[in-house]
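Note to self: the last two entries modelled the partners one at a time, which told us nothing about the interface. This time every component goes in together.
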Amino acid sequence: GQQLNQSPQSMFIQEGEDVSMNCTSSSIFNTWLWYKQEPGEGPVLLIALYKAGELTSNGRLTAQFGITRKDSFLNISASIPSDVGIYFCAGQLAGYALNFGKGTSLLVTP
Amino acid sequence: GAVVSQHPSWVICKSGTSVKIECRSLDFQATTMFWYRQFPKQSLMLMATSNEGSKATYEQGVEKDKFLINHASLTLSTLTVTSAHPEDSSFYICSAPWGALYEQYFGPGTRLTVT
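The predicted structure of the combined assembly is written out below.
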């Protein structure tokens, strides 16, 4: 499968700041998902998006499924130290395996 | 719901030996599971799709005779790395789809080190 274009590659921010990252693809997907991975662990699903234009929140996290179905973004508001980790976007066609972005490494200083 | 486990969480083996990694869906059934490999500071790369009751589907460049997959039941898939070499050292992660639109849930991963 294709690897998605995810940016930025890394972010170093202060606690309390908002964070935004995005993901683009050359092809359309039916589902966009955002995962967080901490060192030595498997990815944990944060948000799943099912329809073009959909905007979904999970606590301080908000994600949107782009209208073209080829992009998505994730925002984290009022970041805290435990937000540290690598965030991956993933696109999925129905029932098939995921195509991942390269990840955004987030560091938050107190 | 949607808990996926893996065993072992880490394993060290000698070059030339085989290692089996288990992936279980604990509270749901999965006719399909996926196996990924992740090298340090890189993203997850799909290795193969495991299908209950039929052969696995391998991605291009993944040797099916080296990475044997068996989907023994609706809650268990195993990945066996045969004749392991140091370059097979990696983080192996499985996932299983669950929910109305089959979003994937991941296991905690298995760290394989081949010496």
